[in-house]
Specification:
- There is one protein chain.
- The protein is built from 14 helices and two strands.
- By secondary structure, the chain is mostly helical.
């Protein structure tokens, strides 16, 4: 007689979505669906039109000479040192502004989160003032503040080494980028702080208290409790801000108009399409800029590796 064998252990069945998760998913599609359709209808045609125009040698001043060149416009753009120079400037502005805004935004979020309940509304309102100003108005304000003739920065801070009444901030690449980055940080840090404040609200208070009871220092609580629970909020803040900073146009256009090596990709696309009326080349620059934005999204999602389902508590 064959020996008795223990029945094979069946692997546990994968748990499917709960009824609540399915209901929330359906509700999310119903709420976001109309906006998604409208955005798709508004943005899809311009994107497809830009892709189509980028395949032609097309200049508005000579519409009869339009001819198909395939990927020739992309070859011209990618072989031009101006494209790579402007890409480097754009990446530099994006990285520096996002890093500084993330640090300052987290500090402001911690202040608002720890503030007395009666002062939270006042603090949030005061912090949001720069973000509520139109970008063009903000850019002009910063330009006139640092202007060598009408500005007040040189006179107020002439006691700082390197600053004199006749210092022209927009005469060199370094100082120009410094003012551009400072204006970006001043205006958009409140946006980052609000996103991170929402993430701080999701950190369980009992976990912080338990860590402190176990003898964890403030730095250890920050690294091992607060930041891991804010990973999803940090990813959203970095993603949104990086995409916005990579498409910077207004500040550069108003302050320097791309002079002294401060031209960005958005300004390059504008000058090619509007300034030179080269619709084909300008469309190729715009499509390449769009591809860079998609790559930023992909890199951010892969870098943070956030499980949104677990972040929602599913």
């Amino acid at each position: 007689m064959a020996p008795n064998r223990a029945p094979a252990t069946q692997p546990p069945a994968r748990a499917g979505k709960s009824d609540r998760a399915r209901a929330e998913s359906r509700l999310g599609w119903w709420l976001a669906g109309p906006a998604f359709v409208v955005m798709l209808a508004v943005t899809l045609y311009p994107i497809l039109q830009a892709v189509y125009d980028s395949l032609f040698s097309y200049r508005l001043t000579a519409p009869g000479e339009r001819r198909f060149v395939g990927l020739g416009n992309y070859a011209v753009v990618l072989s031009d040192p101006v494209w790579w120079r402007d890409l480097l400037v754009t990446v530099l502005i994006t990285v520096v502004t996002v890093v500084i805004e993330l640090i300052l935004g987290f500090a402001l979020a911690m202040v608002m989160h720890r503030a007395v309940h009666r002062l939270r509304g006042l603090l949030r309102t005061a912090i949001l003032v720069p973000y509520g100003i139109i970008t063009v108005v903000s850019a002009f304000a910063w330009f006139y503040a640092f202007d060598v003739t009408s500005g007040y920065v040189n006179h107020w801070f002439d006691w700082v080494p390197g600053i004199s009444p006749d210092l022209n901030w927009f005469a060199s690449q370094g100082t120009s980028l410094l003012v551009i980055i400072a204006s970006e940080v001043w205006k958009t840090t409140p946006f980052i702080s609000l996103l991170l404040l929402a993430g701080l609200a999701q950190v369980p208070g009992d976990m912080e208290e338990a860590a402190k009871v176990d003898g964890a220092t403030t730095g250890q609580v920050l690294r091992r409790v607060i930041l891991p629970n804010m990973k999803a909020s940090i990813m959203v803040a970095v993603l949104f801000r990086a995409l916005d900073a990579f498409r910077i146009f207004d500040n550069v256009f108003i302050m320097t108009n791309g002079a002294n090596g401060t031209e960005t990709l958005s300004l390059l696309a504008y000058r090619t399409s509007i300034g030179r009326l080269e619709i084909g080349l300008g469309s190729a620059v715009s499509v390449l800029l769009f591809v860079c934005v998609i790559l930023i999204c992909f890199a951010a999602i892969k870098l943070f590796k956030v499980d949104l389902a677990s972040a929602r508590g599913e």
